[in-house]
Amino acid sequence: MSVATSNLPSQFEVLDQTLDSQMTLSMGPQHPSTHGVLRLELTLDGEMVVKAIPDIGYLHTGMEKLFEYKKYQQGIVITDRMDYLNPLGNNLAYVMAAEKLLDLEIPERAQVIRVMFCELQRIASHMVWLGTHALDIGAMSVFFYCFRQREKILNLIEAASGGRMTPSYFRIGGLMMDLPAGFERRVKQFLDDFPAAMEMLETLVTGNTIWQIRTQGIGIITAEEAIDWGLTGPCLRGSGVDLDLRRDNPYSGYETYDFEVPVEPDGDVWARFRVRMREFYESYKIVVQAVERLTPGPIKADAPKIVLPDRDDMRKHMDSLIHHFLIVAEGFNIPEGEVYMPIEGSKGELGVYMKSNGGPKPDRVHFRGPSFINLSALPVMSEGEMIADVVAVIGSLDIVLGEIDR
Amino acid sequence: MLDTTVLHEFVEKLKTENSAWIGDTIEAHGEVTVIVPRESIVDVCWVLKTKHGFDMLADLNGADRGPEEDPRFEVVYHLFSTKHYNRLRLKVLLSEDDPRVSTVTTVWKTADWHERETFDMFGVIFDGHPDLRRILLPSDFDGHALRKDYPLRGYEPYSLT
Fold it and tell me: In a 3-state reduction of DSSP, which class is residue A326?
């Protein structure tokens, strides 16, 4: 009896072995803080993350294949469904790629409205980021205040385009239709309330000690690493790299607006949080300037074979009716060529590579989704952190799985 | 229209360094595309990154010209500089029987997922890639979905069981 028991490991030895060994944990794809259907394969040593491998593709719907079977104007609808928090940004990148191939000149009013909506959409997208990021870390009430603001913006988008999350408002050559009557007043109403709302959010989150402890010094990535891993947008600026495509590769007349590019040097979750919080105010500034610039004028380019004519024109002019029929039934041809059109989306560089072979359908459309690239750097940021901090790091990346999986 | 003289200067500098590095140079829509032979893509990328400030790989993607074309596949590299904000496009052409090119993960780490996606969608093999697996499609998926001869709805209904 005594011989048999002596061969068994003691209680303490068993405990030691458990502490030494590493455990593999599959986090997601149903975990609520993985923002959709992301799965992480975590190798854990106790509570510390030794290795993190993101596993994606659960939401893959073959959108890039679908583009090749749709006419250019039909592709706009697909872009709405990629980054569903920033559909107008996706619309803009796609349309501008086609416009670059066509060498189209876009009228001033359409440009101003595009800028205004993109910045409103950026605020809405950052609101969802802040709400869910806070929810992941454990601050529940922030979510409701953020979604209230986002709701107001979605109402504005709905008023102009008819769709809340799938607007398809920007078209090749201009806009779908002009703004409805009284729209400026509604935007101004939103803008009047916005600083007070931001002040409340800042008190709720920024000054919160628990929030600061949970975010400061977590998930650090240096500037060199960030560039090497291709991070863009707030994630890159949070590492102290001063890069914003709105200022450095300007498009849609962004060079004429007065705004600053927020940069934070620390490279941790807190720095990325501060960059986005400060971006709210910069986007707000741009929307204020854009609303002031709204003057009556055409909203569609002067290209009757590409842009759909107004309903009124179709009733009066035979050629407008013919153009309308041809655009809808056969589409329009885009001359052979290839372009890469990068814009500053709410999450980073949103680039569209479009290749045309001269027909009414694109030969190849590729979306460089910022979330896709930002997520690929997750192992660098989360390895060596605690498992609870991985949630904070994912939140700070602001990923949208619809764009990652496409 | 953007001014492309700066970009042509970079191409000229590359040519003086090694004339075998540069094939054709195409300019369109304010963008410059350089066709690079596939043996020298890593060298060209390395020189552009270390000597000419193209420190970021903005995008890497594939394209299929169609099964009847030769070379059939294109691998497109979009280089970007966070210092002088210029963009340059490099392109490697690959034939259908030998769709292989050296990886650029040694130059930019971000190439990792881009190359996995290109392998997944086009079947282009990146020699020396540390972890060349499918990324968006399931590991037992049959074929490469973005090839032109792959039907839109697939060969048969895909089932997870």
Answer: helix
